Amino acid sequence: MKKNLLMWDETLFRDPEVFEFDYVPEQFQFRENQMRELAFQIRPGMRGGRPLNSICKGLPGTGKTTSVRKLFSEISDATKKLVPVYVNCQIDNTKFAIFSQIYRKLTGHLPPASGTSFKQLFDAIARILLKEEIVLLVALDDANYLLYENEINKVLYTLLRAHEAYEGVRMGVIVIISDLDVDLAKAVDARVTSVFRPTEIYFPPYEQAEIREIMQERVMQGLFPGILSEEMLSLVVEQTQGSGDLRVGIDLLKRATMSAERAARRTIDRDDICGAYMISKYLHLSFTLKTLTDEERKILKALALASLDKKEMNAGDVHKTISQSVEIGYTRFYEVIKKLDALRIINLHYREGKGRTRLISLRYDPQKVLEYLS
Length: 374
Prior knowledge:
A hairpin with a 1-residue loop joins strand 7 (346-353) and strand 8. The chain starts with 31 loop residues before the first helix and ends with a helix. It is 52% helix and 13% strand. The protein has 18 helices and eight strands. The chain has a five-stranded parallel sheet, sandwiched between helices. By secondary structure, it is α/β, with parallel strands linked by helices. The radius of gyration is 23 Å and the shape is globular.
């Protein structure tokens, strides 16, 4: 008789790595055109020249990062003369931090934590590139975070004009942007625009049939046979498409499988999936809050507390309330508000009347924002 209960030492996962966000699948589907265009932009670097610059643009969870990581893996396998460096700008969002990651890629370790100026760091990187005859290709993932911190011009200018200070140095840049409202051509200044001249590569949202095929492939690789029925797969696909983010579906599969394991069942049921979705749908909120500064978190907490009483708030009134607990001028307060709007945590809009009144509303349940902040 077939056992229905999972033993304590058994697992439903064939390969749990398949459900991690940094996993790069061998068969990467539905992004062939984008990958082909990226490869074309990179090709001069494979021959010792300067790679062409690119912008990968699309909503979160549309395959931008995976496309770049897969190409970078192929480059690393093919040559040592073109060195690809991936930088997550949610984490490293200053010029020094980004160039520290480049230094680590070239040397295997970070520069000294103190006593190193940026000029010393940049000199060291340039010397390595010239000595080893290396071409550098830097991917700035979620580069919109550099806009919020006013770092984008400094970073791009230094990378793209490096050859002027160090003759023979060759660098190319891939900028990855998940905020469709960002127009990088207008966001950067003229001295950057004159040397940047990127090709924009658009990553559209996945269609339902594509989501299903991708999820089916992950299930086949990551779970043992018979654990997820076709009916339950359809439910996963439906909720993934509703969220608009493939990462939600991948996280959902992982959590639903863990839920079934916890109950010692050999199959995933509807309750596992629906319960997991209640957590996975806040994936963007969870990730984004981790990138905020203490000051930004305090302001968001004050907004969430104010939202418990009313859905829509006047920016001026909110600033007065926040000023009682957080010492912050209105100009800085409004900069933070604009950043939270760009990060899709709040909505900032205007009401015409006696002048333009700035109105703020949370995109999420305020209780959930407070929960994730704590």
